[in-house]
Write a structure and sequence with these properties.
Distance between the termini: 62 Å
Strand content: 15-25%
Bound molecules: S-adenosylmethionine
Strand order of the largest sheet: 3-2-4-1-5
Number of helices: 11
CATH architecture of the largest domain: 3-Layer(aba) Sandwich
CATH topology of the largest domain: Cobalt-precorrin-4 Transmethylase, domain 1
Low-confidence stretches: 226-255
Order of helices and strands: EHEHEHEHEHEHEHEEHEEEEEHHH
Shape: elongated
CATH class of the largest domain: Alpha Beta
Helix content: 40-55%
CATH superfamily of the largest domain: Tetrapyrrole methylase, N-terminal domain
């Protein structure tokens, strides 16, 4: 155990079996545990036979409590920060403390554990390369819609934390701003009523029923293709431009080569081929007939390329 260290300790998001061996050891060895909710953390510690001094560190006392914790660290004591569930600092208290410790040259060490965002993302099957973490959306509708609209052209899936009271409304707003996007709803991850629903946003909202219960993460699939027209690419809707030997023509944000991929991704998520073509046509600004013809052309090109 290194003296004067702030440990960021991940705790289970539901299933206590997800507590790591290292988390148990570190919580047992530090001089104090700084917890978002002391009662909850006392119960978690009791479960693992950890009896430790627990101090409170939350949104409303983070300045005074943060100073106290940094005083302890400067005096050579070690402190573990935990939140109610998951990783501290991610839509949970901890970020400011980490930042202040780093600014003051105090040692910070993560003890990684579960986090709802990554657990939902990998369970969605919607993430290939990057992703966008939005966390909780703003309360004000105008600002919420602004955040969602910003996602419109982003090919990366977005991760949104949501409460049971607001999950349906948010799904409706996803459909309102982004059209028939497929979403994955990860509900009650690692718990008895765990469920992953993957469907276009409005269907997913309907599948939740009128009064959804539990904890939710929404993963919104990315825009089909790369929405930022590259220099020299045709951003006006035409097809067929090439650069560096690669097809970079875009139809209102959808790379030509990704049209087929976009249709396939939707089909893989359980949407019928007709619906998938309709959705991709809408997103790319093409008619269904034009998209269908383009898909046929791409198929032929591919056959030719393969000899
Ligand atoms: N720091 C936490 C983490 O690393 O995931 C997130 C804390 S944030 C205050 C709580 C939100 O995370 C919930 O409203 C929900 O959106 C999501 N969440 C937490 N546990 C979850 C679970 N078991 N299943 C689904 N979502 C969960």
């Amino acid at each position: 155990m290194t003296a004067g260290t702030l440990f960021l300790v991940g705790t289970p998001i539901g299933n206590l079996e997800d507590m790591t061996l290292r988390a148990i050891r570190v919580l047992g060895e530090v001089d104090a545990i700084a917890a978002e909710d002391t009662r909850r953390t006392r119960a978690l510690c009791a479960h693992f036979g950890i009896h430790k001094r627990i101090i409170s560190y939350h949104e409303y006392n983070k300045d005074s409590s943060g100073e106290r914790i940094m005083g302890m660290l400067a005096a050579g004591k070690s402190v573990a920060v935990v939140s109610d569930a998951g990783m501290p600092g991610l839509s949970d208290p901890g970020r400011e403390l980490v930042s202040q410790c780093l600014d003051r040259g105090l040692r910070v060490t993560p003890v990684p554990g579960p986090t709802a965002a990554i657990t939902a993302l990998v369970s969605s099957g919607l993430c290939d390369k990057g992703f966008v973490f939005e966390g909780f959306l703003p309360r004000a509708r105008a600002r919420r819609l602004e955040v969602l609209r910003r996602l419109a052209g982003d090919p990366r899936p977005a991760v949104i934390y949501e409460s049971p009271r607001r999950v349906r409304r948010t799904l409706e707003e996803v459909a309102e701003t982004l059209g028939p996007r497929v979403v994955a709803i990860a509900r009650e991850l690692t718990k008895i009523h765990e469920e992953i629903i993957r469907a276009p946003a409005l269907d997913a909202a309907a599948a939740l029923g009128p009064s959804p219960l539990g904890e939710f993460v929404i993963v919104v699939s990315g825009a089909a293709g790369d929405a930022v027209p590259e220099e020299g690419a045709n951003s006006g809707g035409g097809l067929g431009d090439t650069a560096c030997g690669r097809d970079v023509a875009r139809v209102r944000g959808v790379a030509r080569a990704d049209l087929a991929g976009s249709v396939k991704r939707l089909e893989d998520s359980g949407v019928s081929r007709m619906e998938a073509i309709k959705a991709v046509a809408k997103e790319s600004g093409m008619t269904k007939r034009a998209l269908y013809a383009e898909l046929e052309r791409l198929k032929k090109d591919l056959k030719k390329d393969l000899g």
